[in-house]
Fold these 2 entries.
Entry 1:
Amino acid sequence: MKLAIALVAALAFAALPLMTSSNYIIGVGISALIFTVAAAALNLIYGFTGLLSFAQLGFWGIGGYVTALTVVTFGGNFWWGVLWAALINAVVALAIGYPTLRTNRHAFVIMTLTFALLVTLIARDWVDLTRGPLGIPNLPKPSAFGYHFGTTGQYYWVAWAFSVAMLGFLYALCSSRIGRTLVAIKQNEPLVRAQGIAPMPYKLSAFAISAAVTGAAGGVFTFHLGIIDPLFLDFYYMQTFLIIVIIGGAGSFWGVIAAGIALSALPEVLRFSADFRMIIYGVILVVAMFVMPTGVAGWLRERQLARMREQLR
Amino acid sequence: MSAILQVTELRKSYAGVHALDGVSLAVEAGSITGLIGPNGSGKSTAIDCISGFQKLDGGKVVLAGNDITGQPAHHIARAGLMRTFQTVRIYERLSLRDNLAIAAQQFDPATWLDEFLRTRRYRQAVDKAEVRARELVELIGLKRYWEIETGILSYGQKKLVALAAALMPHPKIVVLDEPVAGVNPTRIREIEVALAELNRAGETFLIVEHNVEFITNLCHRVIVLDQGKKLAEGTAAEIHTDARVLEAYLGMTPEMAEAEMRGAA
Amino acid sequence: MTVDAVYLLQLTLNGITLGLIYALIAVGLSLIFGVMEIINFAHGELLMLGAFAMTFALPVMGLLYWPSLAVAILAIMLVGLVIYEVLLARLKPDEFERSILITLGLSIIIIHVMQYLFTATPRMVDTQYGFEGVSIGSIRITWTRIIGAVAAAAAFGGLYVVLRHTQFGRAMRAIAQNREAALMVGIRPRVVARNAVVLAAGLCGLAGAAISPIQLVTPYMGQFLIFKAFALVIIGGLGNIPGAIVAAIALGLIESWIGGFYEIIWQEAAVFVIMIAILFVRPDGLFKRGGMRVG
Ligand SMILES: Nc1ncnc2c1ncn2[C@@H]1O[C@H](COP(=O)(O)OP(=O)(O)OP(=O)(O)O)[C@@H](O)[C@H]1O
Ligand SMILES: [Mg+2]
């Protein structure tokens, strides 16, 4: 049932460029798709595994830079760039994940936060590689099999295909026994160990997969923007991903997807003042954490549970 | 009979407190062994050390002929030792069915690739586990909670879920830390019968419990700890007449114990 | 390259000042973590507010340094109290992720409200001391730097006395060491937590006030410092106050030395590299706290 709805929604989304010729609306559509993918990746590591990772911002940025540099500096094409973005991020995630995950989840949160900051600093200060604050403008749109995705409308298909593929992959993962094991690790790690399951490989893989998907999403988004500079690592992106996951319901696959599509329009609605927009984001975060810490999906589930309890009486 | 679990000279101290001070014990294959002692005598610490949840300061643990001393907890579980915890641990936000399924998943042949691709090997493993889970749910009498998040269960019911989960993969030995603390008397009787039944079918148990009647009825051998040392060991009847045990643990004189035994008989 | 001794000394002095500022922030974080097991993401914003408080207090006080400092610290302690009562008091222990997300939201709100009200234009702060200072040989240090460092050192002395010798300090240490035992002997965790937050806010206010004459004051000034303070809390061992101080001063020195000889990127990356290295060697930080039991 859910899958059928998802399929219809995916096809409806695919038709967006046929329904409008407004580059603005199509651009919002691309944001919605890509942000949803990044949020779903955050959901994998935070919602399912219970590890709050701020490194997503760093992976997003690395993904953007790797893809752009592959094309501009190293003469590769866009598709290879996205692949490299995923691979390099997975490796980076393993490298920082291994020492950190041995400690405790507190250290993990802080470590990932510092990592995100480090990536920002590199983007800004390692001028030889990243060209510093000026960034890399005029990123060429990709082509495949002789077809050039030159306009926003055409590039939309790339973003669409990428999103559907990534979300499909994440769904297969989260709904499998692997996803259930991640939830078990989040809920009671000692018990998981007592049942013969080593938590570390699960956590590390979840982190690496989440990093790879986020990085690839960053790469695709950069080429939509057509430029990459240190602003690509603005904390605003991280907040957007977080708010999508929290409002949708951490640990609920479909909740986060729905929230991603719905909330991606939010920044556009709040476009009138950058400051004001951020204040509203902050308020949403604080209020959501108090009013419904488990998100819409959690709230629905809570009600369903209450009904079941009723029936048992 | 041979010892499936052989523990020698276990030592563990926490910042000066000698929680275990050279404890040796053996559990015969196919037996039910009780481990009793006053609060703080080191029973849970012994379990934690044996199952790899605490680093031990000294001693040796051998499970079915393999030295498992100091191995990580998940290795020891895979080697065939399943344990429960004194403060109940279950997955509160997962259904009873999932709780039991997870407990067995490490022991079936499905790899992560099978899981991701949902191969036939995976589906067979899942079906097999489901059959076992339904049996155990019947046993603990929680059939109508099958699809329900275990968080809403009562404390005693949660203890039963933890017990069932430990039994899921047919382990070589099941180590239970106070399995019936907080469970009502009639249910305790039922669990007693069920454990005896499982034991007859070949399951080995090491049980920590303060409920003397439960231990007396079930255990073939009982080991008494006091202040990190083994105080006595023997059959339940022998323990019941051991003056040191009576004094240290049961707080009775031998005459009182005898009177009680006669009353029970 | 010959290393100039005077240059090195200058770097070292700068490093100590920097380290003391880091320490003021990190100690507050560590204190709050020790008592409540949460992290206050908005801690850097308290520092920023402290600096802003100084920019408003100084003109009113006729540029007098000490009264303005006192006003700034008191103001931030008040802010800390409000934050505790309105937000943090609602958290249960071990709601670590939730605490981060809530205080993250708070931090965003504070930064952008400040930016909205006072714009992002950096402000200079002038005090009665202006740019006067002392010269030892060819080294020159401004009074504001010296006083800032002395005030920080004095604050640590005061903190030591409070934690060691007062009722509420002892209660704080008791909770940080063993929560259950502390509750059993009748320590009220809410009161202790509130005191800890207010005290930590005070230290942060001091840090902000002390650096306001040294650095430009902007709504974003707290952000970069807080990231480093987080790392320091990890390096020093979560909840370990002396550990945080030692780690902070060491980092100040290391950054200053690196900054003196290499590109800025290395200076900024140092804290991250050190943290990774420490976690590899000692997963619980340099100076760890007691473990928890699982059974
Ligand atoms: N993590 C720990 N840190 C410090 N001391 C501990 C720890 N765990 C146990 N102890 C101490 O070790 C001793 C043995 O504790 P243990 O929990 O093994 O006792 P027990 O026999 O299981 O008691 P009970 O019947 O109350 O469950 C006690 O003195 C206890 O205080
Ligand atoms: Mg015990």
Note: Chain C has eleven helices and two strands.
Entry 2:
Amino acid sequence: MKLNRRAFIGTGVAAAAALQAPMVWSQGRPRVVVVGGGAGGATVARYLAKDSQGQIDVTLVEPTRHYYTCFFSNLYIGGFRDIASIGHSYGKLAAEYGINVVHDWAVGVDRDAKTVTLAGGAALPYDRLVLSPGIDFVDGSVPGWDVSAQHKMPHAYKAGSQSELLKAQIEAMPQGGRFAMIAPPNPYRCPPGPYERISMVAHLLTQVNPTAKILLVDPKEKFSKQGLFEEGWAKHYPGMIERIGPDFGGDKVEVRPDAMEVVIDGTVEKVDACNVIPGQKAGRICEMAGITDGNWAPVNGYNMQSRVDGNIYVLGDATAQGDMPKSGYSANSQAKVAAMAIRGELMGSSVFPAKYSNTCWSLIAPEDGVKVGAAYEPTDEKIASVSSFVSQTGEDAALRKQTYEESLGWYAGITTDMFG
Amino acid sequence: MIRRMLNVLLAGFLLGGAGAAQAELLGDAARGETLFRDCASCHQVGAGAKNRVGPHLNDIFGRRAASAGDDYRYSKGLVRMGADGLVWNFETLNAYIDNPKALVSDTRMAYRGMKDETDRADLLAYLRGFSASPANIPESQPTARASEVELSPETLAIVGDKAYGEYLSSECLTCHQRSGSNEGIPGIVSWPVEDFVIAMHAYKRQIRPHPVMQMMAGRLSDEEIAALAAYFADLE
Ligand SMILES: Cc1cc2nc3c(=O)[nH]c(=O)nc-3n(C[C@H](O)[C@H](O)[C@H](O)COP(=O)(O)OP(=O)(O)OC[C@H]3O[C@@H](n4cnc5c(N)ncnc54)[C@H](O)[C@@H]3O)c2cc1C
């Protein structure tokens, strides 16, 4: 056998732990508490429980009983999925993997005592803590908007009732009415997400309200898969979508939810439905745990360990890690590296060098799918992109259809990988 | 529904003994040979053909479904249909190749279907040449092709470390399901080790086209590919 494990042990800092004897746990099994049951949290909990064969006591804290994936929530808006098909429960993680699923909010972390406090009052002790709380919104990011206005101008950037509300408001628009989206500044979850949403709203409108118009107000010069989206919009939805970038005041926007007005660089526009996607930051529990630097929680790219506290790992959207986009695929990929590193620390199991990857599929119109992806490796400073690809403009319909079908396979695959 | 239709077709064939009529349906075998290239990454046919990712296709005409040998693991659905009496002939193969999942919903064949009727007729004319009667299997022209990539015997001889393969596999499992499901993303469990290794090297060298797979395979070492092959080969 040519494989020499020792040769690659030592390439990552996490590997050092594997050489030490496993620690001795005075209270029986080592305890890992995971906060957030989304793409990062559900995956890490499942891999820890599965790969330690029950030798690690895993608790998953998640307030909702049904997790609605943001991925494919745009397809729900477009009418390609029903809402139930993007909802997932935690039953298998509890019943088949022995994970202690606690439906509650984490409201505090005592890093010295190594406990997590829950809204219900309990304090959960941990040997290692994993935070994967996703995003919260930056206060004042869009003047005139805060979460108290999210029923009038939904963000739909956490899926579920917000997605249903946005879809209902679009369907209720008067014939020939106008839909607006305020796109977020970088960095934010799912770089192609707002533009896939524009595509899906356009598709919905061509079905129910073909003379309606879409106004996309964007603070960014450029956006993900721009060439592909713009080609698709010209082809499938000609004349429907207008984008106002920063050169025309797309970065100077204010909203008036009560009046259903959007003010762009001083010009008032009346709209019939409005999707405000504000600027984002790490889920608030990261700030409460004192592990953020600015808006995000910095992590060590070799193992996803917090740079502030070695007993805490952070996954997914909440992290500042380098080049990986904030996506479900990324969070899932990071979770597997963290699960391996944590098992190495707690059980002395083998630790292999981290490999990360991401692919984001987007749907532009029926059977017109595109994708972008990259592979990543850790360096001392960050997780760095090592190779990438993107769909090309002008691809034939058969390839686009295949790409769409592939995304359906991916969705089934990743949700099985998260929830069992 | 489709299955019922097939049974009708099947019954018709058995009763009518469609021999001559069937020959007329067959197309251009030379063109079929070219079309078979798409199939050849999984199926072998001709002298020396063996069960690989897919079963060998010698004597496929007249063969009962799911009966290419004990060393091949079929989907449950195909086994059931074989037991129910499904026999491969022009009509049944034509329907299967047109849309595999419509006929056998859980088939492990990750093929989306050949939509053009002439293509199917040509392909079947080619395959017909490897079924015993009337033509004998041509001994001189094995189409059990040399693999897509030339790999050194040392590379092929690497024994994969399954524990390492298990960790590496977690990256594959974001898309490819452990259950072997084939929806949109092909199943990769229980492949012969060598086929897995060859396929991954074909992606790594960009002979196979898929960009995600080229990226994934592109950064795997020979040992890592062997580790993954060893791990996935033994998954049930
Ligand atoms: C419209 C849209 C489309 C997208 N499309 C794609 C796509 O096609 N592909 C892709 O890969 N990604 C996509 N994404 C991105 C993807 O949804 C996120 O990147 C991913 O969910 C991040 O995972 P996470 O674990 O960091 O956070 P989340 O999945 O958001 O999970 C966080 C969980 O933590 C819980 N939580 C938060 N705070 C606490 C607390 N204090 N206590 C307990 N629990 C808490 C929340 O309830 C939530 O369930 C899309 C996003 C959007 C908005």
Note: The two ends of chain A are 33 Å apart (CA to CA).
